[in-house]
């Protein structure tokens, strides 16, 4: 643990040094004016998203812009229902932020402490501010955040492409769309699980990641399904049971031939120590962690606990997905297809080239806003 804390401290010291090269002064007597803007933006899905507990065709969202000295950073809050946030809760939280408290955009620890003092939780709202600040600070230093983290992008992982259960015709259409991708992520935990896998396996032998979204009810049911999946080129099983059943997952992990990955069970770095031994790895998402600041810390802490790292996303525009992609070199697996699943992306950003996450050369989180149609 001490090595991890030292590494994080060294990183933050390096960031302070880089901040000195920014194009504005952070002295109290010359504090720059800060403009904070935000507005709702509903994401329209290309296909219905069918999970263990629900189905939806849209995702509510809020876009955020923070401007200092004519430099704007973009952020985003995406609110799938299980997070318990809404457009109203996010905009209500953002209304309470004093923009002057963001005048030193490099002071991530202090800004997060300030946001936590406004209200607990509200992590998607805080993620929107955090992402915008990372975009802004990266632009002020002329660097992308993977560079500021000191990460090597020469060996970027392949992203999975998500397929949820549907009619045979729709499944064929989704499989056609997935052709450029080397790994598929399949939503299970719904009626017809095994038929879905059988259908996919009749059309492709590409590796599968299975995401159950807490859909299996008992450890024995989960184990039976995992044993059935074991010879079907499955890489891992994500959140097979209720997020609160840590001991059930511990029992399952001891018997499972496939790695067990926590998603809904892990939100922030504070959740990690209790999950060690119950899961083989974690899925880090910015909307759960409150942004890149804690997501980076989560990846480092998971490694110190001997756990695998997955970088995931919600259904998001290229803004939040490109922000998460800055952490991709830290990951064993990535599931960064949220922007590919929507029809009204506001931004251009990271791309998938030959199945791999590929970052742009733009500073910050590597995005550009599309011209309004």
Would you give an account of this structure?
By secondary structure, the protein is α/β, with parallel strands linked by helices. It has helices at 2-19, 87-95, 108-118, 123-141, 145-148, 168-177, 193-201, 219-229, 246-255, 272-275, 286-289, 292-304, 318-325; strands spanning 34-40, 43-50, 55-59, 61-68, 71-78, 160-163, 183-187, 208-211, 234-238, 260-262, 281-284, 308-311, 333-334, 347-348, 351-353, 356-358, 368-369. An 8-stranded parallel sheet has the order 6-7-8-9-10-11-12-13. Strands 1-4-5 form a 3-stranded antiparallel sheet.
Compile the SSE list and pairings.
Blueprint: H1 2-19, E1 34-40, E2 43-50, E3 55-59, E4 61-68, E5 71-78, H2 87-95, H3 108-118, H4 123-141, H5 145-148, E6 160-163, H6 168-177, E7 183-187, H7 193-201, E8 208-211, H8 219-229, E9 234-238, H9 246-255, E10 260-262, H10 272-275, E11 281-284, H11 286-289, H12 292-304, E12 308-311, H13 318-325, E13 333-334, E14 347-348, E15 351-353, E16 356-358, E17 368-369
Brief digest:
By secondary structure, the chain is α/β, with parallel strands linked by helices.
Low-confidence stretches: 1-10, 16-28
Q: List SSEs in N-to-C order.
A: HEEEEEHHHHEHEHEHEHEHEHHEHEEEEE
**Strand arrangement across the biggest beta sheet:** 6-7-8-9-10-11-12-13
Question: How many beta strands in the DSSP annotation?
Answer: 17
> What level of helicity do the residues show?
25-40%
Question: Total number of helical segments?
Answer: 13
Amount of beta strand: 15-25%
Q: Keywords for this structure?
A:
single chain; 373 residues; alpha/beta; 8-stranded parallel sheet; 3-stranded antiparallel sheet; globular; disordered N terminus
């Amino acid at each position: 643990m001490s090595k991890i804390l030292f590494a994080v401290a060294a990183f933050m010291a390096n960031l302070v040094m880089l901040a000195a090269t920014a194009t504005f002064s952070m002295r109290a007597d010359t504090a720059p004016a800060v403009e904070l803007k935000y507005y709702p933006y509903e994401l329209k899905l290309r296909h219905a998203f069918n999970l263990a507990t629900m189905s939806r065709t849209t995702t509510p969202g809020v876009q955020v812009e923070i401007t200092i000295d004519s430099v704007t950073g973009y952020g985003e809050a995406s609110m799938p229902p299980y997070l318990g946030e809404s457009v109203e809760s996010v905009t209500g939280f953002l209304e309470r932020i004093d923009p002057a408290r963001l005048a030193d955009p490099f002071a991530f620890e202090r800004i997060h402490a300030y946001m936590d003092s406004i209200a607990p939780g509200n992590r998607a709202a805080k993620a929107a501010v955090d992402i915008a600040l990372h975009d802004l600070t990266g632009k002020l230093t002329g660097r992308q955040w993977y560079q500021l983290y000191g990460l090597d992008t020469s060996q970027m992982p392949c992203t999975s492409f998500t397929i949820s259960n549907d009619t045979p015709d729709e499944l064929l259409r989704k499989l056609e769309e997935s052709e450029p991708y080397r790994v598929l992520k399949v939503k299970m935990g719904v009626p017809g699980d095994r038929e879905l896998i059988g259908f996919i396996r009749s059309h492709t032998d590409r590796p599968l990641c299975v995401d159950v979204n807490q859909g299996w009810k008992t450890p024995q049911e989960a184990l039976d399904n995992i044993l059935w999946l074991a010879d079907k080129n499955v890489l891992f099983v994500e959140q097979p049971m209720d997020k609160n059943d840590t001991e059930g997952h511990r029992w399952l992990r001891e018997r499972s031939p496939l790695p067990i990955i926590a998603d809904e069970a892990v939100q922030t770095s504070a959740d990690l120590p209790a999950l060690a031994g119950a899961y083989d790895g974690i899925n880090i998402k910015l909307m759960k962690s409150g942004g890149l600041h804690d997501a980076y810390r989560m990846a480092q802490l998971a490694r110190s606990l001997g756990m695998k790292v997955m970088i995931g996303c919600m259904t998001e525009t290229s803004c939040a997905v490109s922000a998460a992609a800055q952490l991709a070199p830290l990951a064993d697996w990535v599931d960064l297809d949220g922007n590919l699943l929507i029809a009204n992306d506001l931004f251009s950003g990271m791309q998938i080239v030959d199945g791999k996450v590929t970052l742009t050369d733009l500073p910050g989180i590597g995005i550009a806003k599309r011209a309004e149609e």
